[in-house]
Amino acid sequence: MAYMSMSLHAVNHRLTNVPVKQLPHLASCLASSISNCGELLSTPQSQKSGKTDSDNAVQIHKLITRLGSLLQDRTYEGRWTAVVLVKALVEAGQWEILRSSEPFVRGLISILAKSDPISTKKMCIITLTRIFHLTYQYPTLVREITTPALPGFITSALNLISVKPSSEPVRKLKPNTPFVEVVLQAVNELIARHPTIFRPFTAQIHSLLQVIIGSTSPTFPEHVLEIAQQLFISLHNCAPKNTGGDEWKSACRMTITSVHAASSYVLRAVVEQWESVDPSLRQMSQPQNYSQEVGNGPDALGLEGWQGLNSGVNRLVVLLRMLSGFVGTATASTVTIPVGAILDLTSRLNMVVYPSGSSDIQANPQIGRAEREQLLTELPRIHIACMKLLLDLVNALETSAIPVAQTILEQVLWVFRAEQFSRDVRTAVYDLVCVLLTRIGPSMTKQSVSSMAFIIRKCCHDLLPPTGNQNAATEKPDPKSKNKSSSQATVNADSFLNPGLKQVRQTSSSSSFPDLTRAASELLAATLTHTPSEFLSPALRAEVDRTLILTSDKNAMLASVLNPFPAMQGRGVGTSILPFLARSHPAETEVECLIRPRMPVVMTGLTANGYVPMEDDDDDEDEDEAITAVPASTSTGFLKPTPTPTLQHDDMMDVEKDIPSPPSKRSYADEVEQPAAPTIATTSPSLQSKKPRFEPKAAAVTQPPLDAASPATFTGTAAISVPTSSIAGPAPVQTPKPAQSSIAKPSALAAAAAADDESDDEMPSLNVDPDTEDEDEDEE
Amino acid sequence: MLSECFIASTLASSKAPASATLRDVGVCVHEFQPTLNLRSTFKKSSTAANCLAVSPSHVFAAQSEKAIVHVYSREKGNQEATVPFPERIRSIAVAGGKNGDVLVLGTQGGRLILWETCTGRQVATTASHLRPVTSLVVDPNSNFILSGSSDASIHVWSLVDLLSFTKPPSGRDRQPPNSPIRTFSNHRAAITAIAVGHSAGRYNIAVSAADDSTAIAWDYHTGRLLRTFLLPSNAKSLALDPADRAFYVGYEDGSIQSIDFYKNQSIQNPLHDPSLQSTPSQPPAEDRWAPPSADCGAAHALTLCYDGMTLLSGHQNGKVLSWTVGRKKYASTVADYTHPVTNLFMLPPNGLPHPSLDLKRVAHTIVKPRYDSSLSETSQAAGAVPADYTFSTHLLPSISSKPNSAKPDQFTEAFSHAYFPESMLEEGLAELAAFSQPTSNGAPVSSIAQGISDEDLAAKDSQISQLEAELATLKKKSSVNETARQSTTDEVTKLRSDLANLHDYINELHEKQEQAQREKILRQARKEERETRRREAWFAAEKKGKKGDAVLRKMDAEDTVMTSDTDDQSSDE
Question: Which value does ipTM take for this structure?
Answer without folding.
Answer: 0.73
